[in-house]
UniProtKB/TrEMBL annotation:
SUPFAM superfamilies: Ribokinase-like, YjeF N-terminal domain-like. The gene is nnrE. Its cofactor is K(+); Mg(2+). This is Bifunctional NAD(P)H-hydrate repair enzyme. Catalyzes the dehydration of the S-form of NAD(P)HX at the expense of ADP, which is converted to AMP. Together with NAD(P)HX epimerase, which catalyzes the epimerization of the S- and R-forms, the enzyme allows the repair of both epimers of NAD(P)HX, a damaged form of NAD(P)H that is a result of enzymatic or heat-dependent hydration. Catalyzes the epimerization of the S- and R-forms of NAD(P)HX, a damaged form of NAD(P)H that is a result of enzymatic or heat-dependent hydration. This is a prerequisite for the S-specific NAD(P)H-hydrate dehydratase to allow the repair of both epimers of NAD(P)HX.
Length: 505
């Protein structure tokens, strides 16, 4: 799914109006009708509804919602914020339609003293400002926003399209922003919904299709995308019935050190579960028995060092490897750094770089320039900051993420609630699978194994990244559904990976 900017969404509206054709008023009826239907599905008329409308088209949406709910027996009070003497043409049209039949339900709000006393079980609908916001809300209008937020513990707050005060394309930097429990948005995710800093405002987001013209959607490029099942189905390749283990590649994992062999085991198991035909693991001597006993499906190569991986570059003489994953439990010994430098100089194919391998790069930044094109880096936010420096906010960090991926011609996975995947062509994909239960030790090691396993099967780096992150999150969702978010561990993600292949694609 493409994530369009606020300007592009306005263009999509205009294109639909011109080419469907449909009037702007008709499109507003369609959008508001979807909201009213959602409200009716989730709340019965026993709940009184209080709608706060602005003077623009977002307010027009609210006025239509009010009329439709009144038609279906709901008790609705609609307040019009009089922050401007002018209203949009469609807002005026919808206000007139509401007042023709339900004039007694509409009142003006001229300052905070007009804020109503809300009865028990009331629902607040915020339709004050939509995607057109370009400056902070000030004065008594900001006061109304604060009064709405004060009701959050007692009443459900639902925003139409955008929480009022939140900018669609950036991190929030203002104080007067509605803190919604739910946001009913139209057709596309907005970038703002996917940024960690905006989490207190949008609440649970529901995207309602309103039939914007498909030609605009397909023909208009977007910088940001949301990974979805449809994309995964175009990427996934079913297995050839005449295939053999050599068909699906020989992967090499360089992982583990004294006290950290668990990370190597997790990564190895995930690599095999992701479908790698063959797997070799380069581990220190102390990890030989552990690996052979814990994961008998993997072959094991031991380093010259008893406790650490310090001579793994010698193993790349095996040109049969289709992919290399490096980092889980690796440690950051000087000998490890030297061997990593040799590996980067001698290996020209894409590789997966995670954990301590990323930490080594942050200590020795000249290694960045030696990473093979098409490689995949998997930092969490702190690792990303150590690699590329701090950012003022989430929007600035996204820009830096994309800039570095393009400059280095690599894929960078910035882990988070909506993991961001930056591509060498400048595109950024947000992944929407996964849950907080995956915030547990070893989850990243599992992802490294999955990515390495997919890369070894001749998936392109982009396909491996999108599919791997999706499957990793979906397996976590399945595990959480059966075990709870609290009780799940990284091993459970691996256990549910097979089901993720079956159900997630």
């Amino acid at each position: 799914m493409k994530i369009f900017s606020a300007a592009q969404i306005r263009e999509a509206d205009a294109f639909t109006i011109a080419h469907e054709p449909i009037s702007s008023s008709g499109l507003m009826e369609r959008a508001a009708g979807k909201c009213a239907a959602w409200l009716e599905d989730h709340y019965s008329p026993v709940h009184p509804v209080y709608i706060f409308c602005g003077k623009g088209n977002n307010g027009g949406d609210g006025l239509v919602i009010a009329r439709l709910l009144l038609d279906h027996g709901y008790t609705v009070r609609t307040g019009i914020l009089q922050y401007s003497p002018k209203a949009s043409a469609d807002q005026e049209l919808k206000l007139q339609a509401l007042q023709e039949h339900y004039s007694s339900t509409v009142y003006d709000i001229g300052d905070i003293s007009d804020f109503p006393a809300l009865p028990a079980n009331a629902i607040i609908i915020d339709a004050i400002f939509g995607t057109g916001m370009s400056r902070p809300i000030e004065g008594w209008t900001a006061g109304i926003i604060h009064l709405i937020n004060d009701q959050r513990q007692k009443h459900v707050i639902i925003s139409v399209d955008m929480p009022s005060g939140l900018m669609a394309d950036e991190s929030n930097r203002h104080t007067a922003v509605v803190q919604a429990h739910y946001t009913l948005s139209f057709e596309f995710y907005k970038l703002a919904f996917l940024l960690r800093e905006n989490a207190p405002y949008a609440g649970e987001v529901h995207i309602l299709p309103i039939g914007l013209h498909p030609d605009y959607i397909t023909q208009t490029p977007a910088r940001y995308h949301l990974s979805d099942r449809e994309i995964m189905r175009t990427i996934y390749r079913p297995r050839d019935p005449f295939a053999h283990k050599g068909t699906y590649g020989h992967a090499l994992l360089i992982a583990g050190s004294y006290g950290k062999m668990g990370a190597a085991i997790l990564s190895a198991r995930a690599c095999l579960r992701a479908g790698a035909g063959l797997l070799s693991c380069h581990v220190p001597q102390c990890g030989y028995d552990i690996m052979q006993i814990s994961e008998p499906c993997a072959m094991c190569i031991t380093d010259e060092d008893p406790r650490y991986n310090t001579h793994f570059h010698q193993d790349i003489t095996n040109t049969n490897y289709k992919a290399i994953g490096i980092g889980p439990g690796l440690d950051t010994q000087p000998g490890t750094a030297k061997s990593f430098e040799h590996l980067l100089s001698g290996w020209q194919r894409p590789m997966v770089i995670d954990a301590d391998a990323l930490n080594l790069i942050s200590v020795y930044p000249f290694l960045l320039a030696r990473i093979p094109a098409g490689s995949i880096l998997t930092p969490h936010p702190k690792e990303f900051e150590r690699l590329f420096g701090p950012s003022a906010n989430d929007t600035a960090r996204l820009d830096l993420l994309s800039k570095q991926a393009v400059s280095l011609q690599i894929y960078i996975i910035l882990k988070g609630r909506y993991t961001a995947i930056a591509c060498p062509d400048g595109a950024v994909y947000f992944n929407n699978t996964g849950n907080p239960g995956m915030a547990t030790g070893g989850s990243g090691d599992v992802l490294t194994g999955i990515l390495t396993g997919l890369l070894s099967q001749d998936y392109s780096p982009k396909a491996a990244v999108l599919l791997g992150v999706w499957l990793h999150g979906y397996a976590g969702d399945l595990a959480a559904a059966h075990l709870s978010q609290e009780a799940m561990t990284a091993t459970d993600i691996i256990s549910w990976l097979g089901k993720a292949f079956q159900e997630g694609i």
